[in-house]
Amino acid sequence: MEANNKSRLTYTSYMLTFFLCGALLFLFGFFPASYSASEEDSSVPNVRPTSLHGLKIHPPPRSYQAFILFLIDALREDFVNASTMPVAHARACEKLTVHVDIPTVTMPRLKSITTGTLSNFIDIALNVGHTEQLHDSLLHRLKQHKANVSFAGDRTWVELFPSEFNRHSANNDSFFVNDFYKGDRNVTKVLGLELEKRDWTLLILHYLGLDHIGHVEGNKSPRVKDKLKEMDDALKNILDHKNITNYLLMLTGDHGMAEGGGHGGNTPYETLVPLYLFSSDCSKSTGGPKRYNQIDLAPTLAVLLSIEIPKMSIGCLIPEMLQSLSLEHQMYAYFYNAHHLLNRARVKFGHEKVKHSDYYHWYQNATLLHKKLLHSIRDRESTSNVHYQVAKLNYMRMAREISMLLSESLVKFDYGFIAIGLALTLSSSLHIVLSILFLDVTDQLQMDRLKARQLLLSLVIGVISNVVSHHLDLIITSSIMQSVLLVLPIGISIYLSIDVVQALLTIMLPPLYSRRLKLCIPLPLPLLICFAIRTFTLGSSSFIEREYKTWYYLGNTLLVLTSFKTLRRRITKTNVELDGRHLHKIASVCLWQQRKVFVVLILLTLMRYLYRLNVIKSTLMLFSLFLLWARLRKFNNLLQIVLNAVAFLLVFGFRVLNGDVDFYGLKSHIMARFIVPTLVLFWCCMAANILLGYRLALPQKNRDGVLNIKPQNVLLQLLQTNLSCSLVVASLLHKAQNVVLLPTMLITLDQTYKLCDVYCTSARKFTVRQVHVYKIIMTIFIARMFYFYQGNSNSLSTIDLTPGYIGQTNYNPIVVGIFVTLNTYCAEIHSFLYLIVHTLRTDLRSVGIIQLQPPYAVAADTLVMPMYAAMIMLPAAFYLCLMLGFRYHLFIYSVFSPKVLYDCYTVLVFYFVFVITSLYFKLFKRET
Amino acid sequence: MATRFDQQKTKHQLFHVSLSLATTLICMAYMQYRRNWAHLGSFGDSLIVPIVFTGELLKVVLARFYGRIEDGVLTTKQRQKKAAYFTPRELLGGLTLQFLCTLLYAFICIILGAPVLANYEQTFVLSLLLTLLTVSPTVFLLGGGGALQVCFCEKPEFVTKCEDTALDLFKYNALGGILGAWAGSAVAPLDWGRDWQLYPIPNVIGALLGSALGNIYACTHVLYATARVYISKKSA
Question: Would the keyword Metal-binding turn up in this protein's UniProt record (chain A) (predicted)?
Answer without folding.
Answer: no
